[in-house]
Amino acid sequence: MQELINTTLLIIGGGPGGYVAAIRAGQLGIPTVLVEGQALGGTCLNIGCIPSKALIHVAEQFHQASRYTEPSPLGISVSSPRLDISRSVEWKDGIVDRLTSGVAALLKKHGVKVIHGWAKILDGKSVEVEGQRIQCEHLLLATGSSSVELPMLPIGGPIISSTEALAPKAMPEHLVVVGGGYIGLELGIAYRKLGAKVSVVEARERILPTYDAELTAPVADSIKKLGIALYLGHSVEGYADGCLLASDGQGGQLRLEADQVLVAVGRRPRSKGFGLESLDLKMNGAAIAIDERCQTSMRNVWAIGDVAGEPMLAHRAMAQGEMVAEIIAGKTRRFEPAAIAAVCFTDPEVVVVGKTPEQAGQQGVDCIVAQFPFAANGRAMSLESKSGFVRVVARRDNHLILGWQAVGVAVSELSSAFAQSLEMGARLEDIAGTIHAHPTLGEAVQEAALRALGHALHI
Amino acid sequence: MGTHVIKMPDIGEGIAQVELVEWFVKVGDVIAEDQVVADVMTDKATVEIPSPVSGKVLALGGQPGEVMAVGSELIRIEVEGSGNHVDTPQAKQAEPAPAAVQAAARPEPRVEPQPQVAATHAAAPIVPREAHDKPLASPAVRKRALDAGIELRYVHGSGPAGRILHEDLDAFISKPQSSAGQAPGGYGKRTDSEQVPVIGLRRKIAQRMQDAKRRVAHFSYVEEIDVTALEALRQQLNAKHGDSRGKLTLLPFLVRAMVVALRDFPQINATYDDEAQVITRHGAVHVGIATQGDNGLMVPVLRHAEAGSLWSNASEIARVAHAARNNKASREELSGSTITLTSLGALGGIVSTPVVNTPEVAIVGVNRMVERPVVIDGQIVVRKMMNLSSSFDHRVVDGMDAALFIQAVRGLLEQPACLFVE
């Protein structure tokens, strides 16, 4: 029997929520232990955000190179680009390694004790990790989420989840993506650009169902141009004899020959299998219910990130982790951001911050909605990007900006400006009166505000 | 450019120290000739100090509450021309440099923010938002509010679109009646507290009350007085002479009763110097009239009450009380009483235990007048009744004498004709 470890803060999960909480706790002088069963960095660094962006970059580069085999308006021509996917995966793994070892170094620097192993909760103040008892004053649950599996499509063999899709050994002939949400589309588009034939099957009537149709239209166009087959309104029934079977609900049967099927139908809070049930916490479906301070129904038991439900975004988990550490250090804090940006790395990219016109309308707010197309933006043209726009939603009475949406090449980088304007309580005049550098995509942001005020300059 | 220095003036005979009560200017202010720069206070009176010159305030010589020596530097003003003060090198060194620095640095933050805050409040009424309305504020403001335990919902936003600025938070924090944390419509816990420095008049009152309670052996005596006849007389006099001579309150009658009764009780119209162990019995009856001013209790004096008529005493009481209330009473008007009369009128209650106004030895307190059933000759009749609650310095006034004095006053008031029979 190993010696009992006593600590003030025990964090289960070393993802973006858990490790940020640990770093901040270390900065604040709180004795902290972090337990991680797999690799530090969690889903985000290992099998999510970072590797997918790396793969998307590879796909984009290869796609561009392939374009130059045909006569290009840019005047570039290449004979025939080849892809060594194992090298690509190696490069991606290198990035992941650098980041995860960076996290380990940061934790060490801040005096956080990292224990590798799977935690089992004994009660609200004690956890066991492979025979090692750890006693704590505060327990922070940051166990994240896992991919939702479909009973008729169990993962294995040709049926893969996003984790396997991010470490391909070879390109499939025909990949069928089940799920037209952001994960399915990001990976589907990447695989298409890497040379695979790709089809997307989605149960609902449109892609990216959480966004409005206007916003997703440029993505739908791009998917069509890339030659990805879309099967909307189709429910998957199973996979047999190398074929994915789906029905349209009206008697129509779909049979797609596919050597690989990617199941990307969402993520579920990881709240089972480690003794969480014994705490009998108040739940919100599969997610742990938390208050505005990320406290669960049990005193000094906290939950952050995906395990605490939607929106399942790494940057939300990080902000919550930082906050919980400060609360434990005795500060008064509440999680009350004006907005959390959501970014979708499809081609083109989509970014949504704050209220959409529809949401504002539902809340009975009288709004001005204005958009500025990238077709009228010089920088976008020079990036060969003509689709997409920036849209602003503002109150009609005092011009307070309530939300931003954008779709277009590289618009993910505009998310910071969007979030900042909402957090600072900017009005249309504030953005319209800020000089935006020329030539940048950001000019479309200023022009959208100007257009909402009735005097856009370049349209 | 020269420097003009105003020194703390000698405002009362033989007073060496004066308390600085309030500054009306701050360093950097441009002031006009005759503009009042400060209030200072002696034992008895608050005096305004005007500036004899126009110019710019360079330094203040003290902070409110500070007791300063007569002749010390009160304020330094930069003036056109040569001024009245030359900083010789020696003088510069000899002068208490830290004090000057302190004076320049300290009062400024005390005085400056107040008008700003007041202005903000006047312009911006506090409008609590609806519960579902998120207060609009930058992350930095939100964090500061959390750290300070303030619900931004209750903070007025003066920025564009009602945005709560750092300045709004400053104003809210400095506002003493903070309603932070109060639930809408509920009874919120209050954790705020306000520290009021005991300076100026309040300090004087505190010292004198404490001193009186510590030194004087208080003996209090309460008697009930039938003022039916007195009230009838008073009303008749007011009906007949009110227009020409002014209305009479009960006070001049009480003063008259005291004047007449004191002829037989010289030991009560006296002052006791307990350090010199001397009692001075006064021929003159100078009646102190306890008066509530804006800043606290003051005792202006009706001088030579024994020589005044009902109406002249009444008008003099009104005049000195008014002067005291408006902080305009002179030092003479606030000192020299030989006995004190205290009345809260309708608020008089049924009994009070007044504190002797040292070095006097007696204070007469007037309680509320009410109509009450009283048994007279076996009949229950309604009479106007009023209590007198009086305190004496038992060290020099015996209980028997005190009781006899009050009984004499009672006899005079119940048979008011006796007040005027010599």
UniProtKB/TrEMBL annotation, chain A:
GO-annotated biological processes: 2-oxoglutarate metabolic process
Superkingdom, taxonomy of origin: Bacteria
Ligand binding (NAD(+)): G179, G180, G181, Y182, I183, G184, L185, E186, E202, G266
Comment on bound cofactor: Binds 1 FAD per subunit.
SUPFAM superfamilies per record: FAD/NAD(P)-binding domain, FAD/NAD-linked reductases, dimerisation (C-terminal) domain
Annotated FAD/NAD(P)-binding domain residues: 9-321
Catalytic reaction list: N(6)-[(R)-dihydrolipoyl]-L-lysyl-[protein] + NAD(+) = N(6)-[(R)-lipoyl]-L-lysyl-[protein] + NADH + H(+)
Main localization, broad class: cytoplasm
Disulfide pairings: C44-C49
UniProt keyword annotation of Disulfide bond present: yes
Pfam short name (any one): Pyr_redox_2
Binding site for FAD: K53, T143, G144, S145, D306, M312, L313, A314, H315
Cofactor: FAD
Top enzyme class: oxidoreductase
Entry keywords, A to Z: Cytoplasm, Disulfide bond, FAD, Flavoprotein, NAD, Nucleotide-binding, Oxidoreductase, Redox-active center
Active site, renumbered: H438 (proton acceptor)
Residue ranges annotated for the Pyridine nucleotide-disulphide oxidoreductase dimerisation domain, each copy included: 340-449
Subcellular location: Cytoplasm
EC number from the UniProt entry: 1.8.1.4
GO cellular component: a single term: cytoplasm
An example molecular function term from Gene Ontology annotations: dihydrolipoyl dehydrogenase (NADH) activity
NCBIfam families given in the database record: lipoamide_DH
Complexes and interactors: Homodimer.
Family: Belongs to the class-I pyridine nucleotide-disulfide oxidoreductase family.
Note: The active site is a redox-active disulfide bond.
Protein's recorded name: Dihydrolipoyl dehydrogenase
Automatic annotation (TrEMBL), chain B:
GO molecular function, one term: lipoic acid binding
Domain of life: Bacteria
EC nos: 2.3.1.-
Keywords, alphabetical: Acyltransferase, Lipoyl, Transferase
Coiled coil start-end: none
Region of interest: Disordered: 84-114
Cofactor(s) required, per the database record: (R)-lipoate
Gene Ontology CC annotation, any one: cytoplasm
Residues in Peripheral subunit-binding (PSBD) domain copies: 136-173
InterPro entries: 2-oxoA_DH_lipoyl-BS, 2-oxoacid_DH_actylTfrase, 2-oxoacid_DH_E2_comp, Biotin_lipoyl, CAT-like_dom_sf, E3-bd_dom_sf, PSBD, Single_hybrid_motif
EC top class named in words: transferase
Lipoyl-binding domain segment(s): 3-78
Compositionally biased spans, kind Low complexity: 89-106
Annotated SUPFAM superfamilies: CoA-dependent acyltransferases (SSF52777), Peripheral subunit-binding domain of 2-oxo acid dehydrogenase complex (SSF47005), Single hybrid motif (SSF51230)
CDD domains per record: lipoyl_domain
Subunit description: Forms a 24-polypeptide structural core with octahedral symmetry.
PANTHER family in alphabetical order: DIHYDROLIPOAMIDE ACETYLTRANSFERASE COMPONENT OF PYRUVATE DEHYDROGENASE COMPLEX, LIPOAMIDE ACYLTRANSFERASE COMPONENT OF BRANCHED-CHAIN ALPHA-KETO ACID DEHYDROGENASE COMPLEX, MITOCHONDRIAL
Family membership: Belongs to the 2-oxoacid dehydrogenase family.
The protein, known as: Dihydrolipoamide acetyltransferase component of pyruvate dehydrogenase complex
Organism: Pseudomonas soli
